[in-house]
Design goal:
The protein is mainly beta and 141 residues long. It has one domain. It has a five-stranded mixed beta sheet with strand order 1-4-2-8-9, with no helix packed on it. Strands 3, 5, 6 and 7 form a four-stranded antiparallel beta sheet that branches. The longest helix has 13 residues. The radius of gyration is 16 Å and the shape is globular. The N terminus and C terminus are likely disordered.
């Protein structure tokens, strides 16, 4: 007789989620996906920080680890979910260069209730995110 094992189910879901790739083509400049930028968010489930909105679109929380973006400005809304507590969202913007490679790094300190994210260019190690958009006409809700 088979029984439901939550540990095995959780591990299976984590394995499926670890291979997720999501593509975002919201691109007001009209550039093509011929040279998409790649954002990697390593192990979002373990970090406790999830992306719940991209470019003003809320598709629900997806534990994707790789995002493909058309070149141009993009926004992310992130939220920390640690120890059954959820934070207020944080919005950040960054510019994607054709063929650029980026990594989202997270900081979570549940003891002190501190969390944050940063987007780093993997070629230079430079932090490239900001707290406001360059284009004021872009929807962010």
């Amino acid at each position: 007789m088979l029984r439901f094992n939550p540990l095995v189910a959780g591990l299976g879901m984590a394995l499926l989620a670890s291979a997720c790739t999501t593509t975002y083509m919201d691109n007001a400049a009209g550039l093509t996906m011929a040279q998409p930028g790649i954002l990697v968010h390593k192990d979002p489930l373990r970090s406790g920080v999830l992306i719940d909105q991209v470019d003003g679109h809320r598709d629900g929380v997806r534990p994707a680890t790789t995002y493909r973006f058309a070149p141009g400005e993009h926004s992310l809304r992130t939220r920390a979910n640690v120890a059954f507590m959820s934070s207020e969202p944080q919005m950040i913007w960054f510019d994607v260069a054709p063929g650029g490679r980026y990594e989202m790094r997270t900081l979570v300190d549940p003891t002190h209730g501190v969390w944050g994210v940063g987007i780093f260019d993997t070629a230079t190690g430079t932090r490239v995110d900001r707290l406001s958009p360059h284009r004021k006409d872009r929807a962010t809700n």
